[in-house]
Write a structure and sequence with these properties.
Elements: H1 9-16, H2 24-29, H3 41-46, E1 48-50, H4 51-54, E2 60-61, E3 66-67, H5 69-75, E4 84-86, E5 93-94, H6 97-100, E6 105-106, H7 112-119, E7 128-132, E8 136-143, E9 154-159, E10 165-173, H8 177-187, H9 195-200, E11 210-212, E12 230-232, H10 240-272, H11 278-311, E13 321-322, E14 343-344, E15 348-356, H12 357-369, E16 379-384, E17 392-399, E18 409-417, E19 429-433, E20 442-444, E21 450-452, E22 455-461, E23 467-471, E24 473-478, E25 481-486, H13 518-533
Parallel strand pairs: 1-4
Antiparallel strand pairs: 2-3, 5-6, 7-8, 8-10, 9-10, 11-12, 13-14, 15-18, 16-17, 16-19, 17-18, 20-25, 21-22, 22-23, 24-25
Helix pairs in contact: 8-10, 10-11
GO cellular component, one term: plasma membrane
Domain Multidrug resistance protein MdtA-like C-terminal permuted SH3: 443-501
Domain Carbohydrate kinase FGGY N-terminal: 52-119
């Protein structure tokens, strides 16, 4: 691809949208057998064009001043389809007699912007034409040699006073008169475009307001199709007149940007050929540096405005439930002082507790015997005030590094899954922290346990239904039943009711009774499954506690 084909969407679409491989019929129709007749002036006019217009096709080599064979091959365009290229002051033919009443010779032709360059008599290097319409278009004549732009301009063809080929630098601003139309049609601050001058002169300046009219992106010298318009410097003292003046000034600023780029591109070459004085060249260099500094300052203002805009949107790092709004639209908010609202995590919740040092030391010893770290991987059971027992399983998440000497307690924290929304932050709960390792145990009613001089025992039935005295090691209660750590095995039959009337060695007629209700058995089954088949919820280490999926509050 030629270096002067800019890879910008609005240029490529303009130059290449109509290019496609022609059909065989078209090629035959354009074959040399039906080429123009040199003796027919009207056919000459239809089959010829000037250098300025053909340079707009992106298929014309402006250096060799001929159709570019490489590009024609790339787009599969037969050369026979294209017109003959002539100088702007060549004899192109005659007009259709029916149009003007006679066959009028056509002795000159030029494209729109180059025609304006001719109309302004810009034939010498360094001369610039600037015309305005929907946009703003500038051409600087650079003489008989093409100047390669390094500042975002296009190198194109111009022509001399006798039609000879010359070169120019071109810059196009997308929004000129369209910004005034925006004031009239969209903002409706003026009734007619001519009114803009009247209102702009009513104020001495724009009162610090600057408009960047990038409604369709930015053209030369920036070529940014994704830029968007912006207004800076708005205060309560800004009036419509200030905005109108800033709009007209924005057209001047954009024109100045293109002109500065032209001076930077062509200034050294013009100075070397003595087309301009050294003083003027230095002045242009200084102006270019000032313009560059102004662009940097404006960019800094834009960055600051974007940063301030981002502060108007407040987001939370976690998902959860928000409380009532403490402030509403129009209230004054001070950074770091005004409370907007509160947010609590609902996916997982924390339960904080304080344990005295005796319980803490006992727990540490049990954890050591079980081979477990006291600060991790320890199951915790939770119960609400409306529930019996502690049916909810969680995990110890945090244990402080020292005991509070004033209270003799140490702070701990457990985390629980709250996907079902069972827990509301702020509730008081019961916690049961497991210190020992997992072991098999038997659950029985307290009525089945007897006391013998400080020892606990139960009466077990043998195969002949005779009672046998057996000591047991008791544990805490779980769901209303007593845990038997040792002394009983699965399948043992024991005396539950009437223990005072039975003695060891007695023959009894056993009657089967339920050790627990159906609800209790279901709860125990759920607890056993939660311990054996599922992992309690875990949270990240303290350094990772800022992730959005972890609980807060």
């Amino acid at each position: 691809m030629r270096r002067w084909l800019l890879t910008l969407p609005f240029l490529l679409l303009a130059g290449c949208a109509g290019l496609h491989a022609p059909s065989r019929d078209v090629e035959e129709a354009a074959s040399p057998s039906v080429a123009r007749d040199p003796a027919d002036p009207q056919d000459c006019l239809a089959r010829s064009d000037c250098t300025t217009k053909t340079s707009r096709t992106l298929l014309f080599n402006i250096h060799s001043q001929d159709w570019d064979e490489e590009l024609l091959a790339l787009f599969e365009i037969p050369r026979s389809l294209l017109p003959e290229v002539l100088d702007c002051a060549a004899e192109f033919g005659v007009s259709e007699p029916s149009l003007l009443g006679a066959a009028i010779p056509v002795l000159g032709m030029a494209g729109d912007q180059q025609a304006a360059l001719i109309g302004q008599a810009c034939f010498q290097p360094g001369m610039v034409k600037s015309t305005y319409g929907t946009g703003c278009f500038l051409l600087m004549h650079t003489g008989d040699k093409a100047v390669k732009s390094t500042h975002g301009l296009l190198t194109t063809i111009a022509c001399g006073p006798r039609g000879e080929v010359g070169y120019a630098l071109e810059g196009a601003v997308f929004n000129g008169g369209s910004t005034v139309q925006w004031l009239r049609d969209e903002l409706k601050v003026i009734n007619d475009s001519f009114d803009s001058e009247y209102f702009a002169t009513k104020v001495k300046d724009s009162n610090g307001v600057y408009l960047v009219p990038a409604f369709t992106g930015l053209g030369a010298p920036y070529w940014d199709p994704y830029a968007r318009g912006a207004v800076f410097g708005l205060t309560r003292g800004v009036k419509a007149d200030h905005l109108i003046r800033a709009t007209l000034e924005s057209i001047a600023y954009q024109t100045r940007d293109v002109l500065d780029a032209m001076q930077r591109d062509a200034g050294e070459r013009l100075r070397a050929s003595n087309a301009i004085s050294a003083e003027l060249a230095d002045a242009r260099t200084t102006a270019a540096q000032e313009a560059k500094a102004a662009v940097a300052a404006t960019q800094a203002q834009l960055d600051a405005a974007r940063l301030n805009l981002s502060f108007t949107r407040i987001t939370a790092p976690i998902d959860g439930r928000v409380s009532r709004a403490e402030v509403t639209a129009g209230n004054l908010v001070n950074s770091g002082e005004t409370l907007l609202t509160t947010l609590v995590s609902t996916d997982k919740v924390y339960a904080y507790f304080d344990a005295d040092e005796r319980v803490f030391l006992k727990y540490v010893e049990l954890a050591r015997q079980a081979g477990r770290d006291t600060r991790s991987e320890s199951p915790v059971y939770l119960g609400l005030s409306s529930e019996d027992g502690n049916p909810h399983l969680g995990r110890l998440d945090f244990l402080d590094n020292q005991v509070n000497p004033r209270t003799g307690t140490i702070r701990g924290r457990a985390v629980f899954d709250n996907a079902k929304g069972e827990f509301t932050p702020g509730l008081y709960v019961r916690l049961k922290l497991v210190g020992s390792k997992t072991y098999a145990a038997t659950l029985i009613k307290d009525e089945a346990v007897g006391t013998d001089l400080g020892k606990k025992f139960v009466l077990v039935l043998d195969g002949d239904n005779k009672t046998v005295y057996r000591t047991v090691e008791m544990g805490p209660k779980l769901e209303g039943l007593r845990i038997v750590r040792s002394g009983l095995s699965k399948g043992d039959r024991i005396v539950v009711n009437g223990l005072q009337r039975v003695r060891p060695g007695m023959q009894v007629d056993p009657q089967k009774v339920e050790m627990a209700s159906a609800d209790t058995l279901a709860t125990l089954a759920r607890l056993r499954q939660s311990v054996g088949d599922s992992e309690p919820p875990k949270v990240a280490a303290s350094k990772d506690n800022a992730t959005r999926n972890e609980p807060r509050g």
